[in-house]
Design goal:
This is Transcriptional regulator, PadR-like family. The protein is mainly alpha-helical and about 140 residues long. The protein has 5 helices and 3 strands; from the N terminus they run ααβααββα. It has helices at about 10-20, 25-35, 40-50, 60-70, 95-125; strands at about 40, 75-80, 90-95. Strand 2 and strand 3 form a beta hairpin. Helix 1 (about 10-20) packs across helix 5 and helix 2 (about 25-35) packs across helix 5. The chain is elongated, with a radius of gyration of 19 Å. The termini are far apart.
């Protein structure tokens, strides 16, 4: 991972990961690779079974993210000859990827707590829901 001149690698990693928490692709890929090394197609199938808010995983998006994660040294890959057909890349989690997975979990936990706090305050203000007092849509 490339650290800036005055920024430790951990701070750079945190900044990078904060930009990837919205769509959950990176944390889910890291989670799946923590469980076991996998080929891209297998990762796509596993992501689709995770029922992410983004819907079905687009293969081009997944492979683009895997390449970016490899550039950031969160994953590595190597070509593996298949029993039938062409060679395929097998992706592995790196120690930095494991660190990123734990940091993603921390960032997502913090985000969840903030969302829950907002919803608690919202329910206090609108105990009957959005249609209270005919103010739906306001």
């Amino acid at each position: 991972m490339n650290a800036g001149p005055n920024r430790p690698p951990e701070a750079e990693l945190a900044l990078l990961l904060q930009t990837h928490t919205e769509k959950l692709i990176w944390p889910c890929l890291l989670f799946l690779l923590y469980r076991k090394p996998a080929h891209g197609y297998e990762l796509i199938q596993s992501l689709n079974r995770m029922d992410l808010p983004e819907g079905e995983a687009d293969p081009a998006t997944i492979y683009r993210n895997l390449r970016r994660m490899e550039e950031e040294e969160l994953v590595t890959s190597r070509w593996e000859a298949g029993p039938s057909g062409p060679a395929r890349r097998l992706y592995h989690l790196t120690p930095a990827g494991k660190q990123a997975l734990h940091l993603f979990a921390h960032l997502l936990r913090e985000k969840k707590e903030k969302m829950e706090q907002f919803l608690r305050q919202y329910r206090e203000l609108f105990p009957a829901g959005p249609a209270e007092n005919g103010k739906e849509g306001e």
